[in-house]
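Model it.
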Amino acid sequence: MKILISNTSESPLYQQIKGQIIDAILKSELAEGDTLPSIRVFANDLKVSVLTIRRVYDELEKEGFVKSQIGIGTFVSTSNVELLRDSKRRLVEQKMQDMIQTAKSLGISIQELNEMMNILYEEE
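Modeled.
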């Protein structure tokens, strides 16, 4: 799993890391039962505080994306299927919102946008 963090981003480090882990889970780059790095190792790899990684793992666990077992590790958990589905929808909705704003700013009608989306969707 590759995590890229930016010191120039408006988002705090923990949100950048958390968001990328959630994206990896939603895209099935991380699967049920996969082990996340230990807090210390992950913090060292990303050159951030262990408190930052602890916060990320705690929030991911509260949201049902991971399960932590003391002394064993932190594992990806996709058992909360409805939460996962909702998160996937939110991800798509965010990307669609960006697409709609771009289309509007370029004067592209909803019909043209739908045609483009249908063509691109069918190509995949």
